[in-house]
Amino acid sequence: MAAPERIAIVGLGLIGGSLALALRRARPQTWIIGVDVDARTLEQAADERAIDAAATPDLVRLDGCDTVVLCTPAQPLLEMLPSVAARMQPGALLTDVCGAKELVCSAGAAQDRVIFIGGHPMAGTEFRGYVAANPALFSGCTVALCPPVGAADAGARRDAIRRVRELWTSAGAETLLDVEPDAHDRAVMVASHLPYLAAAAVAETLIESGSEAMLARELAAGGFRDTTRLAGDGTVGGAAALNRFVPGAARALAERLRALADALERTPDEALRRLSSVADERRRMRLPTPAPPPAKPFPR
Amino acid sequence: MAAPERIAIVGLGLIGGSLALALRRARPQTWIIGVDVDARTLEQAADERAIDAAATPDLVRLDGCDTVVLCTPAQPLLEMLPSVAARMQPGALLTDVCGAKELVCSAGAAQDRVIFIGGHPMAGTEFRGYVAANPALFSGCTVALCPPVGAADAGARRDAIRRVRELWTSAGAETLLDVEPDAHDRAVMVASHLPYLAAAAVAETLIESGSEAMLARELAAGGFRDTTRLAGDGTVGGAAALNRFVPGAARALAERLRALADALERTPDEALRRLSSVADERRRMRLPTPAPPPAKPFPR
């Protein structure tokens, strides 16, 4: 019998913590090393038996791991990638969960010690930290996976692909989508980073509004809540900052809003026809409503 | 014993239909006349006994009603208000549900036959029409009510205020908020119309995006769904078009987005600190999640 797989999860926040909990439930044999800068997080994850061993990033032994998953916020993730790869055993799998893939996969390709496969699970909530983690977070979700880069050994690459796919499938993912890093970043710009920036700008408007703010909060119905929910997820901002398509798209969105404002004043009938057509199209998208998270995060 | 109150609801869409269903359940004695241009809607509402009588707008006898509630889309509502008031009995109550109050209350003040009290229930879904109506739509919601205008009789005004408050309380509203029309429109601009326009602009970006559109749809997680949900509610657009504070606010939002795009390129650390502070504030808002609508719209 082969030795159980050893996986290090670096960063036990919402995503890393949920991944640990999901893997623990689906693959009890897998040895999970939790890595975090926060001692309380490590303690809590160990208490819940989400991880088998706990370590801080500077002290963790990564050369004993088959797989390392980077789950920290975007900028530190990009910065630590080379040094993490350098400390792993040659030919092992390094992967990540960052919402921007071009820069991260470039960093993965700039070394040839390990196989790097960029990943991005399309899941999240506006809450953060290990306290918000739950084993069902990835249930039914889509995970984008980029082509392997780094170490060139063909056998090791096939093995790495198999392992990263098994990782997400056992964590609950329903669809694994093979995608090039730049196509990913363009698509995620529309699907996530632009909605995030719009939500943040709208939320900021309410936060900074003066005398009408209190009344606006009393009058805020489900529309405001839903439109701005994503603004509470600060981690998306980090990925958006690493996505080179975002600034141009945000300027185009600004122009779209300005044109809409002009149309509402000058040609309201036309503006309303346009908005009504958007409404019809949006309803037709029939985007699924996710299952609510389980009441208890994890059975102790 | 006084005769039962007679209420005409003009427009049996999501809001008017839900109001009829809620009143029928809470006040079975109230005589409800459903008014709509669509014969099938009238038939369905009558079949479900949501209404006691059905009529088209041109044929309905409004002079027998104590209260008329205008529940049509914003622009037709504004246009029909004077002729509806002219056909009612003097001193009766005319009220509405439009999301813009300045123009509508001005139209109500331009006649002196009936008491007009502008109302705005803060409730809705992205679905529309009588088929989407449900008697719990207003359960726990806030309703903004403007000061009475029109007929000057003090006794009739007191009576009208009492009746409009009872109307919404029995429909399930939890908070009745007395508010001036211009303060309402400023607040609703921030709370609803601006989020709506942002949602529509983001949804339109996805709809118009070319090659990346399919991939973007596959990658669209809960963030896109929630941010753009409001864009599916075309009725908000009609109210936004009647709100004089909207175009300026939309231009300010565009400027905010453009500045954010510049900051992400030039001073990303600063941009991320700003976004992170918005995220913290947004989470602190702790906006309530509404109760799901009942599985069955109405017991037959």
Tell me about this structure:
In chain A, helix 3 runs parallel beside helix 4 and helix 6 packs across helix 8. Chain A has two domains: 175 residues, NAD(P)-binding Rossmann-like Domain (Rossmann fold, 3-Layer(aba) Sandwich); 103 residues, Orthogonal Bundle (6-phosphogluconate dehydrogenase C-terminal fold), CATH 1.10.3660.10. With 300 residues, chain A is α/β, with parallel strands linked by helices. The two termini of chain A are 29 Å apart. Chain A is built from eleven helices and ten strands. In chain A, the strands form two sheets. In chain A, strands 3-2-1-4-5-6-9 form a seven-stranded mixed sheet, with helices on both faces. In chain A, strands 7-8-10 form a three-stranded mixed sheet, with helices on one face. In chain A, 50% of the residues lie in helices and 12% in strands. Chains A and B meet through helix 6, helix 7, helix 8, helix 9 and helix 10 of A and helix 6, helix 7, helix 8, helix 9 and helix 10 of B.
Question: What is the topological layout?
Answer:
The structure is a homodimer of 300-residue chains.
Chain A: E1 6-10, H1 14-26, E2 31-35, H2 39-47, E3 53-55, E4 67-70, H3 74-87, E5 93-96, H4 102-109, E6 115-117, E7 119-121, E8 142-145, E9 149-150, H5 154-170, E10 175-178, H6 181-208, H7 213-219, H8 222-229, H9 234-241, H10 246-266, H11 268-285
Parallel strand pairs in A: 1-2, 1-4, 2-3, 4-5, 5-6, 8-10
Antiparallel strand pairs in A: 6-9, 7-8
Helix pairs in contact in A: 3-4, 6-8, 6-9, 6-10, 10-11
Short précis:
Chain A is α/β, with parallel strands linked by helices. Chain A has 11 helices and 10 strands.
